[in-house]
C-alpha cells in the first residue's frame, strides 16, 4: 500500500536533504511548497506569501491523494510548523483511508544556526535557490514553530 511521508522540522533543519535521502531508499513523488513557489512565483511575494503558500499546500495535498490512489508513495516537504497544520494534514489523509507517517527532523540549536549561516552564504553566492533567512523570516518562524509533542511523530531523525 502506498503511503505519504510528512516531513516536519524547523526552517533550515535539513528537511530537503532528508527527503532526498528517503528517495534514495524508496522511490517516491516529492511535493515541496518551496519548489513550487520558487519555480512559479517571484520570491518577493511579500504580504501575499502566506496566502499563496496555503493555496499551494492545499493543491499539493490533493495531488498527494491522487498519487497515493495511483499507488505511488509521496513525500510532503514543507515543515508543518504548527500543531494545527499537522492535525489538519493527518485528518486529510485519515479521511481518505490513506497510510501516512510523520517524520521529524530534530536539529540542535547550534547545528541549526550553522545551517542558516551556510544556506545564506550559498544563496548570496548564487549557489542555492532557497530563501535567504533574514531577521524578519527568522522572527516569524520563531513565533510560529511548535515542536511536536511526545508521541506525535512516527520517526524522529536527529542531526
Task: Please outline what is shown here.
With 159 residues, the chain is α/β, with parallel strands linked by helices. Helix content is 50%, strand content 18%. The chain has a single domain (3-158), classed as P-loop containing nucleotide triphosphate hydrolases (Rossmann fold), CATH 3.40.50.300.
Description:
The protein has a single domain, classed as P-loop containing nucleotide triphosphate hydrolases (Rossmann fold, 3-Layer(aba) Sandwich). Helices cover 50% and strands 18% of the residues. The protein has helices at residues 15-25, 33-40, 49-69, 83-95, 109-124, 135-144; strands at 3-9, 29-32, 74-79, 99-106, 155-158. Strands 2-3-1-4-5 form a 5-stranded parallel beta sheet, with helices on both faces. The radius of gyration is 15 Å and the shape is globular. The mean pLDDT is 93.
Features:
159 residues; alpha/beta; 6 helices; 5 strands; globular
Which CATH architecture would you pick? 3-Layer(aba) Sandwich
CATH third-level topology: Rossmann fold
Mean pLDDT: 93
Class by SSE composition: alpha/beta
Please state the CA-atom Rg, rounded to the nearest Å.
Answer: 15 Å
In total, the number of strands is: 5
Query: What is the oligomeric state here?
Result: single chain
Number of domains: 1
**Percent in helix:** 40-55%
Strand order of the largest sheet: 2-3-1-4-5
Instruction: Describe the global form.
Output: globular
N→C terminal distance:
29 Å
H/E series: EHEHHEHEHHE
Major sheet description: 5 strands, parallel
CATH homologous superfamily assignment = P-loop containing nucleotide triphosphate hydrolases
Strand content: 15-25%
